[in-house]
């Protein structure tokens, strides 16, 4: 409904699945009735299909990944490695505590990303590829 209301029918891919590091299944753990935004999944059991972002073959260019997945951040990032390497999108990711931030930062630093700030009431970080600007200039200059 929101996609149509905002005229984004051709720019948004929808898929009825959870996102993780590989294809499989998961069980849904709903949040409390007053906050369904903290619904989470348990990978490996259940009936909800799980896909990696890379397996969805999303047409680019992709400029931004927003990841708010209640503890599954590293799984989503591992399943998006090819997408990240190809498009070097900015990545905004919620990491609710220090161990979660260290895990996310460790993966992204190894991909050539650096943190550029912390935002929101729940710790949400912006990461940018260190060579993104140089690479984009090369893409724009190509015939």
Provide the descriptors you would attach to this structure in a database record:
143 residues, alpha/beta, Rossmann fold, 4-stranded mixed β-sheet, 8 strands
Description:
The structure is a single chain. The chain has 5 helices and 8 strands; from the N terminus they run αβββββααβαββα. It is globular and about 50 Å long. The protein has a single domain, classed as 3-Layer(aba) Sandwich (Rossmann fold). The mean pLDDT is 87. The protein has 143 residues and is of the alpha/beta class. A 4-stranded mixed β-sheet has the order 1-4-2-3, with no helix packed on it.
Summarize the structure.
28% of the residues lie in helices and 27% in strands. It is built from 5 helices and 8 strands, in the order H-E-E-E-E-E-H-H-E-H-E-E-H.
- List low-pLDDT spans: none
Overall mean confidence score, pLDDT: 87
| CATH top level assignment | Alpha Beta
Beta-strand portion reads: 25-35%
Question: How are the SSEs placed, and which strands pair?
Answer:
Blueprint: H1 2-5, E1 18-19, E2 24-29, E3 40-43, E4 48-51, E5 64-67, H2 73-78, H3 81-87, E6 90-94, H4 98-110, E7 113-119, E8 124-129, H5 132-141
